[in-house]
Write the structure tokens for this entry.
Amino acid sequence: MSAVVRPAFYRHMAIALSLFVIVGFSQTYYLRFLTGLPPLDTLVHLHSVVFTAWLLVFIAQTRLVAAQRVDLHMKLGIAALALAVVVVAISFATTAVKATIPRIHPSGLTPPQFTIVGIMSLVLFAGFLALGVAFRRRAAYHKRFMTLAMIGVLTPAASRIVTQLGLREHWTYLVPIAPALFVAWCLAYDWRKQRIVHPVYAIGGAALIASWPLRVMIGRSDWYQPVGEWIARIGTGLQ
């Protein structure tokens, strides 16, 4: 019986997404020792280590499927789920602590208001991940949900790349381009291979892109202000 030849798209996508994150955090974390930046706080360092572990697991999972080791893919998936929970928890804590730092973001949002950007990313990540787990026995859905989960948390890396390029004043307009381009890549792949776009990418991708104007709108709303302040108080307690 001949082996099943699996498309390389998801392996390439996993590597591209991971490289994007690594490039984004190259100056502030991975190559920080080459800069004059002060040492990182323990929480931020822990967040970076945990998310780097997630990138490695994400790549490993696509490699296992490509190697037709679905059995190992499923076993590693249990550990990956536990790691994802840790990623969400530490990411929320990091967002909360950053909300205590006085500054006005280029988007015009105050630190408590700006927490909506991180919170929305975590909601998308957790939501797509949960759907991926729910559809784990339907590969066409599972792999697409997991890809969208990863695209949903590109914001911090995209933000740093925009800053590195000296375009921080245009943050609001430039940062959403990165996830939009990755979503477009997914849509183009589906269309090229099947002449139809899978509903996960069509609906999930649209929701991901639409979340960007919603983040700024929600952050500036009166009802979110106390929510952002509550998150900042949590951050104060974690310091």
Q: What stands out?
A: The chain has eleven helices and no strands. The longest helix spans residues 70-98. Residues 1-5 have pLDDT under 50 and may be disordered. The CA atoms of residues 30 and 187 lie 31 Å apart.
